[in-house]
Amino acid sequence: MIKACIFDLDGVIVDTARYHFIAWRRLANELGFDFTEKENEQIKGVSRTESLNLILRWGGVEKTEAEKTELAARKNDWYVDLVCNMTPSEILEGVVAFLDGLRAKGIKIALGSASKNSMTILRQVGLVEYFDVVIDGTKTTRSKPDPEVFLLGAQALGLPPSDCIVFEDAEKGIEAALTGGFHAVGIGEPEALPAAKFVIPGFAGITFEEIVARL
Ligand code: B16
Ligand code: MG
Questions:
Q1: Pocket test for ligand 1, best of 6, 8, 10 (most atoms within 8 A of CB)
Q2: Are residues 119 and 180 in the same domain?
Q3: Which of 31, 55, 142, 192 could cross-link 148 (Cys pair, CB 3.0–4.6 Å)?
Q4: Are residues 111 and 173 in the same domain?
């Protein structure tokens, strides 16, 4: 019996990956190198610190821990400037109708995101009120594929993982959900998420009942 849905943020509710890409690329360019949108795929769902380490590796650049802290903060300032201009029009198609449907059925709603900026983003697009529980990078100590973020979500909802569906766009997120004992539904292309039991392109035109029937 499914009693809750836990949503990843970037790539599931909104497309903030393009803002991460703009800000990380600006940082890389300042450091004298560039990276592609294809490489950017690898940092989707990955924490800020791990993303920076990967990008520095692509550029063949070595930095001290203190320098890395400063670089991550600089990137985050640019990223926050970008997300502070987001509007509700940037909520991915079908999400609001899907959340309204869950509400009407009394299904609990939680966020399970790696981002430390999730509240800013939810506020900016006007979705805060939908969420019974928000677990994000400000509350976790371990990154996906560790299941911590989703386990904390289930715990805060007072439900076992088997009563919850996790919606994720990143392979590491699907792995985290499955390791934690959750039902995992992929968002995006099936080829990119082979571990997910099934993958939907997004929430447009699909109902909670249709998803539950396919679990
Ligand atoms: P921040 P998600 C993730 O969000 C992003 O996909 C990833 O690119 C980002 O590095 C991470 O959040 C941390 O974000 O720098 O804002 O703390 O997909 O877990 O919602
Ligand atoms: Mg994501």
A1: 10
A2: yes
A3: 142
A4: yes
User: 83, 103, 135 — which closes off a domain?
Assistant: 83
Q: At which of 53, 68, 83 does a domain end?
A: 83
Q: How many domains does the chain have?
A: 2
| Judgement on whether residues 66 and 97 belong to the same structural domain of the protein | no
**What gap in Å lies between CA 66 and CA 7, rounded to an integer?**
33
Q: In terms of domains, do 27 and 75 share one?
A: yes
Ligand 1 pocket: which of 115, 138, 149 to mutate (most atoms <8 Å of CB)? Answer: 115
141 and 63 part of one domain: no
pTM of this structure: 0.95
Query: pLDDT 10s digit of each residue in the chain, 215 long?
Result: 999 999 999 999 999 999 999 999 999 999 999 998 888 888 888 899 999 999 999 999 999 999 999 999 999 999 999 999 999 999 999 999 999 999 999 999 999 999 999 999 999 999 999 999 999 999 999 999 999 999 999 999 999 999 999 999 999 999 999 999 999 999 999 998 999 989 999 999 999 999 999 99
What 8-state DSSP symbol labels residue 92?
A: P
178 three-state secondary structure:
helix
Partners of 133 in the β-ladder: 110
Tell me the C-alpha distance between 68 and 5, whole Å: 35
Domain limits for position 110: 4-14+89-214
Q: How far is CA 175 from the centre of its chain?
A: 13
Peptide bond into 147 cis (omega under 30): no
Q: Is 100 a catalytic residue?
A: no
CB atoms within 5 A of ion ligand 2 belong to: 8, 10-11, 45, 169-170
